[in-house]
Amino acid sequence: MKLNSLVIGLSLALGLVSSAAAQTTMRISISIAQNSHQGVAIDTFAKEVEKRTAGRYKVQPFYSGSLGGERESIEAVQLGTQELTFSSTGPVPNFVPEARILDIPFLFRDKAHARAVLDGPIGQEMLTKFDAKGFKALAWGENGIRHMTNSKRDVNSPDDLKGLKMRTMENPVHVAAYKGLGIVTTPMAFPEVFTALQQGTVDGQENPLSVIMAAKFDQVQKHLSLTGHVYSPGIFLMNKATFDKLSAADKQAFLEAAREGVKANRARVDEDDAKGVAELRAKGMTVIENVDKAKFVATLAPVNAKFEEQFGKANIDKIRNFK
Ligand code: EAX
């Protein structure tokens, strides 16, 4: 009896030791706070990976740019010094130029259109373009529809943007377009933005309501305009060599976990979009809801002509007309 329980105890202990030894921990990062649509994405992913691999893989989330901004994190994932990141497509074109086309202003009618394109053949094919650059792109997620904020004035039309100094993402498509709107562009990594706004290094910035709320930009920005000038995709990126080493079943588990993360991520964006205006008004921002979008589109016509030349009008139309 005593011997039996000793043997059981011993084998349990050994079992624990061997399963602990077989456990691999990976890191995933975001540049914004945990309490956000991106925090929900990576927390859900971490939970699902652990569940779907019976605890053999653990994913440790890092928030608020504690492992660096988005460009640095993507670089680290490419090098393999960090296994995973969830990022906006901000710095992505610097790594995978094919993805630039997704950052064109007023490309998507709304979130439903963007989600359908990303989940459909165009988006899925684009995910494969990351392979050659050292990434396994697990899934498209969502950052959201971007709106402009600033500390100077209400923005109703592009005329109000002339000479405004705005932080932009380190994204060549955005920079070209915003220059076309008359904005003085200052590309900057996200972790520096709050201080830059606070100190007046820049007058404004643009981000989805989800990010504006998570980053508490209402504390340093008075004017919000629902410009909806561009859709901002998110993406789950993993180091390719790390992914390739997984068993076939574990690869599936990671892919499914990412898809669960995206579901939670998009649901949170919808929630944020539904309550964002009221919440930001309550925090003291003035919100211009009826922006002259036709004027924005018209002002961007010359820049758009350049994009059509660069990326192919047929390719852009394929996305615009996707049903
Ligand atoms: O990914 O850099 C940005 O403005 C991004 O939208 C933000 O970090 C969320």
Quick description:
The chain is an alpha/beta fold. The chain is 46% helix and 20% strand.
Oligomer: single chain
Please give the radius of gyration in angstroms.
22 Å
Beta fraction of the residues? 15-25%
Instruction: Give the CATH class.
Output: Alpha Beta
- Mean pLDDT across every amino acid position: 95
Shape: globular
> Helix coverage percent of residues?
40-55%
Q: How would you explain this protein's 3D organization?
A:
The protein has 323 residues and is α/β, with parallel strands linked by helices. It has one domain: D-Maltodextrin-Binding Protein, domain 2 (3-Layer(aba) Sandwich). The protein contains 13 helices and 9 strands. The strands form 2 sheets. Strands 1, 2, 3, 4, 7, 8 and 9 form a 7-stranded mixed β-sheet that branches. It has a two-stranded parallel ribbon with strand order 5-6. The longest helix has 35 residues. The radius of gyration is 22 Å and the shape is globular. The termini are far apart. About 2% of the residues have low confidence. The chain binds (2R,3R)-2,3,4-trihydroxybutanoic acid.
Keywords:
323 residues, alpha/beta, D-Maltodextrin-Binding Protein, domain 2, 13 helices, binds (2R,3R)-2,3,4-trihydroxybutanoic acid
SSE topology sketch:
Elements lengths: L1 H20 L2 E6 L7 H16 L4 E6 L7 H10 L4 E5 L22 H9 L1 H8 L6 E16 L14 E4 L3 H9 L3 E4 L5 H6 L5 E5 H6 L8 E17 H5 L3 H35 L3 E3 L4 H7 L1 H11 L1 H8 L3
Parallel strand pairs: 1-2, 1-3, 5-6, 8-9
Antiparallel strand pairs: 3-8, 4-7, 4-8
Helix pairs in contact: 2-10, 6-12, 12-13
Bound molecules: (2R,3R)-2,3,4-trihydroxybutanoic acid.
